[in-house]
Design a protein that fits this description.
heterodimer, A: 310 residues, ABC transporter involved in vitamin B12 uptake, BtuC, B: two-stranded antiparallel sheet
Amino acid sequence: MDFGGINPVILIASLMVASVPILLAALGELVTEKAGVLNLGVEGMMIMGAICGFITAVHSGSPVAGFVGGALGGAALSLVFAFVTQVLLANQVATGLALTLFGLGLSSLMGQNYNGIKPPLTGALLPGFLREIPVVGPIIFGHDWMVYLSILLVAAVWWVLKATRLGLIIRAVGESHEAAHALGYRVRLIRLGAIAFGGALAGLGGAYISLVRVPQWVDGITAGAGWIALAIVVFASWKPWRALIGAYLFGGITVLQLNLQAAGSRIPVEYLSMSPYLVTILVLVIMSSGRGRAALNAPAALGQNFHATR
Amino acid sequence: MLRLEKRPNPSRFWLYATPVVAVVLTMVFGGLLFALMGTNPFAVIRTIFWDPLFGEFAFYLRGQLLVKAGPLILIAIGLSLGFRAGIWNIGAEGQYIMGAICGAAVGLAVYPTENRLIFPLMILAGAFGGWAWAMIPAILKTRFNTNEILVSLMLVYVAQTILAKASTGFLKNPEGMGFPGSRNFSGYPAAANPELIAGSGLHWGGVAALIVAVAAWVLLSRHIIGFQIRLSGQAPRAARFHGVNPSRLVVLCMGLSGALAGLAGLFEVTGPAGQISIDFNVGYGFTAIIVAFLGRLNPIGIVLAGVLMALTYVGGEMASTNLRLPAAAIQVFQGMLLFFLLGVDVLTNYRIRMAKGG
């Protein structure tokens, strides 16, 4: 059952794996933006997660510890952003860019002695006989635990934002920080939490790249995944389940173009490898054009700093 | 408990003092980082900031300073116009690459004709390449309200794949024995961008940077467009009442910054880099963002900031050969500088007061 040398079952199974990093990072950024903070440093936090996770996993021998290390690395870097934007009230766009530039440099500095090392393997979660069921086996049962965790996190974020008091507070802070402040909520503290959560998920996504997707350490390993994650948040119009769809769409394109390259397609490799970026632009155009439909759903206080006058 | 109190007007003293404070803080914390890595921080700081200017090899390194500062200043001045108006072109790296490819393509197309008009034509083509690449996010922004930050950045990755295609495909040197990369411009006088004064490191890119800095200063302080740019950044509502057309401003700012980045790319590829190759770009487009902020988005400030940033490049290379400091450490150092700048800037707009309780 192959189409032009590409097996659709394997394609779907591998796109689920390929989209985990951008899904996690997009989900984290979604929560951050829901709280009214635009953190453009996703790429930097992801790559910090990638190197921190890699180092932890190599030294502890445990991939689980690696993912925890990656999340901590991403969160730690995001706290720098939180301090500069929330306490020192710096411009969020510029600080986010600084975070990316700094993260790229720091990760390459930390990773100098880790080139060419193999990290401990993250195996499949479920027993083998389930994976051998045709079609559904590889697609539903064949993955490592991070794939399932990422989907669970989508459900959790959706539920928290939609149905809990915490979610209501986060949204209130993101829609109108003045009103939230007047109600007695600590705007900057809540934003700090949302930024750290976003950083942790970006770090987790980055660790997935260096521990599972590639799996080794290379400078600049994230290759723009963080920026694609930012685009997915816009594509999802700040809704968690749509972020899942968006991430799978982009994961699908990435996997498809890699498969086409491997299958010796007649389209030159260069054009195939630029396709995820072109599709991102196309999707952004479609989402932002329809009379600002997507823009209407953007948190009202997105990107504005809060300074309590009273 | 410390509390921030908004100043009625930005402090003029801190406006000029913050870049200096940020540089000093970066030296202190960068020094700590270098010490943690087991190098002598004082030796590293001296190698980066002192030796290229007054050290043993200063006669050579001072020239390198202009080579690196030229493109940084050119790009940063373009970016600063947009940043002032709240238009975030962060894909200068892509525009730099496309400018280099377009300009080089014009030169290579007429190889080996010798004519005095070839180099000026290449300059035009380089500016056009960068301009056209920046027009994509600009037009998408004005027509479809698409986020220019994400689009311009995505186009960097697209430009990099086009560069790979150019150096292995359509611009490859036919006499290069199969190696990737175009013909070297140093062997083609009509299209080359040589050093103008031997040993100074000054090439046409440096001359252009200085001209552009003066032009930008005049534009910002004396021309109605400069006024509109400043007004849109500081008071968007007032700008609308004043009759500023936001779309026109986006197209203008993006176009100018793209064209300048393209120019920088062309001067680099015909001069110091010498040829189109897969990795001739070394991230000037991103470092220029730091330069723009370090220069406080002011053309004269940017010239100084560009020279300082060039110092970290040249000195950083020295430190990595002499003191075995990893090249990435300089990148961290530059990133740190931007953080400190943005953070210390709080003093320009706020006063720190002691307050009782929260």
